[in-house]
From TrEMBL:
This is VCBS repeat-containing protein. The keyword Methyltransferase does not apply. InterPro entries: FG-GAP, Integrin_alpha_N. Pfam families: FG-GAP (PF01839), FG-GAP_3 (PF13517). The keyword Oxidoreductase does not apply. Keywords: Signal.
């Protein structure tokens, strides 16, 4: 299980996102005060997708954080786009080479265009995709 933290719903409290590999979902816990967390809200990533790694970033320049995740079972990278103070829109997926097993993600503005870029570590071939 991998964990990412950030202020998903813009309330100045730390929220937690986890990759639930065996359950094929991303779990979101909102801090509700006094360091207490809400119950997990699951976002389904697909049948046998096996999400293994999550990162938080603002991929679409709106006021909300988005969740990107590596699906090692589906050979995809997925993004749930944040909206409406802590909710996420339907999944957007991006395919990588079949059988490659997306394993880790790194984010940053690698080409200095003011947009968040994603690097995918590919387990099966010991390579990265940009």
């Amino acid at each position: 299980m991998h964990v990412a933290v950030g202020d998903i719903n813009n309330d100045n409290k730390v929220d937690i996102v986890v990759a639930n590999t065996g359950a094929n979902n991303i779990g979101v816990f909102m801090e509700i005060g006094d360091r207490t967390l809400s119950s997990m809200k699951p976002y389904i990533t697909g049948n046998q997708s096996f999400p293994i790694y999550v990162v938080l970033a603002n991929f679409n320049h709106d006021p909300y954080l988005d969740v990107a995740f590596a699906n090692t079972g589906a050979d995809t990278v997925g993004i749930f786009f944040g909206y409406d103070n802590g909710n996420f829109r339907n999944i957007s997926t991006y395919s990588i080479k079949s059988g490659s097993q997306a394993y880790r993600l790194a984010i940053g503005d690698f080409n200095n265009d003011n947009f968040v870029d994603t690097i995918v570590a590919i387990y099966a071939s010991h390579m990265v995709a940009f």
